[in-house]
Design goal:
By secondary structure, this protein is α+β, with helices and mostly antiparallel strands. The chain contains 2 helices and 29 strands. Helix 1 packs across helix 2.
């Protein structure tokens, strides 16, 4: 039989060589046969998979039914269900710079801000309450505060006028701003505060900063996008600006209320100027075009702080540096601000500086990196002291008391730390 098969094969090969058309037809038929076998194989695999899915579906349906009967199936443990990493323990009263830690909050702290006159410390945690502490009670055991209730939104930011009697609050949900007057003694409604105004919603995106000029001449707000609004105290928008830098990260107003700066996703800081009447010092408006541009960082700006004389600016960046700038320049003649010095993150050069604050006396600079606080000499940038693990989670704000003796730090760990300045004078 094998010889006969070999003869048939030879005969077939000879006939294919003699007739090219027959060879082509045979090749096409062969290809079609291969394709049919492939498709049938795929269909068989799909049927098996479908059968398996049906079994899983039936199994899931059974689990749901048992759950409804009160026999919920215990979920299988996954890699993502592993025990959470223990939080970093924050420092306590044994630290030499520790003054007090304010607790009892339900959410992460969005902002903790001392009033310019030194009387109050306002704290927001995205609830319908702003706690306004009496600053002179922070060093004692009884931390007295006024509870300012928000009527229909959650408070995210607050700031004070230079007298401390006026407070503005930025709302989290509806991007609105409300203005309050703080009363030393209870008023007609048996409260320590009066809501003076609630502004209409103008921002289209979540708020990033809400600030009241120390002169109480205007209110500055910026969103997470590129819009920046300037308001009067009656709630009217008097200027709309655009940073054109993809995202706004932070903002600051100079102590003399003449300049305000906005830090963005890009490495530049945009500075605008407020206009005042030279004789009466009455606020006249805002220059539409920025007057200065601080260029020198390599990545986005997360923190900005003006010196008490409004002639310098400190900036904190994602690039792992903070810089001190001289802005006392002839910007009308296109003279650019100059970097006085630049400091690299002492913990890890790759970690960003998230916040920066110059003390009201101009002698000390505080910065935040993750959950750590660093103190620096404002004259030359030399490192003075650290509070490592000041909080168990990231720091969200830094603010100095009027006398420059205390620094308040808000944190995502739902506490506010108050620290002593390491420099004595």
């Amino acid at each position: 039989p094998r010889l006969e098969n070999m003869d048939v094969t030879r005969d077939l090969v000879a006939r294919l060589q003699a007739d090219p058309k027959l060879a082509i037809a045979s090749g096409v038929i062969g290809i079609l046969v291969v394709l049919v076998v492939f498709v049938l194989g795929r269909k068989s695999s799909a049927n098996k998979a479908s059968s398996g899915d049906a079994k899983e579906t039936d199994k899931d349906s059974t689990d749901v039914a048992e759950s409804k009967k009160g026999k919920a199936k215990k979920p299988e443990k996954r890699d993502t269900d592993a025990a959470p990493v223990a939080p970093i323990k924050s420092v306590g009263p044994d630290h030499p710079l520790y003054l007090v830690r304010l607790k009892g909050y339900k959410n992460a702290i969005d902002g903790a801000v001392f009033s310019h006159d030194g009387r109050y410390l306002g704290v927001c945690d995205s609830t319908r309450v702003v706690r306004v502490y009496f600053a002179d009670s922070l060093s004692g055991k009884d931390h007295r505060y006024i509870q300012v209730n928000m009527e229909d939104d959650n408070a995210m930011f607050c700031d004070f006028s230079s007298s401390g009697s006026d407070m503005i609050v930025g709302m989290a949900d509806k991007q609105r701003i409300a203005a309050y007057q703080i009363l030393e003694k209870k008023g007609k409604e048996n409260k320590h505060y009066v809501r003076k105004a609630q502004f209409a919603t103008e921002h289209k995106h979540p708020l990033k900063s809400v600030l009241l000029a120390p002169s109480a001449a205007y209110i500055l707000s910026c969103s997470t996008e590129t819009e920046v609004l300037v308001w009067n105290l009656q709630g009217k928008v008097i200027e709309k600006l655009d940073t054109k830098q993809l995202k706004n990260y932070c903002a600051a107003i100079s102590p003399d209320s003449r300049f305000f700066a906005v830090g963005c996703f890009t490495a530049d800081v945009k500075v605008w100027e407020a206009l005042y009447d030279k004789k009466t010092n009455i606020f006249m408006g805002i220059k539409k075009h920025q007057v200065m541009d601080l260029k020198g960082h390599k990545r986005g700006i997360l923190g900005i702080s003006f010196s008490p004389d409004s002639k310098k600016v400190a900036t904190a960046s994602v690039d792992g540096t903070w810089k001190m700038w001289d802005i006392n320049v002839r910007y009308e003649m296109q003279e650019d601000p100059k970097v006085i010095f630049s400091v690299t993150n002492p913990v890890d050069p790759a970690l960003p500086f998230t916040h920066v604050a110059i003390s009201p006396n101009g002698k000390c600079v505080a910065t935040a990196t993750a959950n750590n606080i660093h103190f620096w000499d404002a004259e030359n940038g030399s490192r003075i002291a650290d509070v490592m693990a000041a909080h168990s989670k990231a720091i969200s704000s830094l603010s100095w008391s009027k006398n420059s003796e205390w620094l308040a730090s808000g944190s995502h760990d739902m506490t506010v730390g108050v620290w002593k300045c390491p420099i004595t004078w």
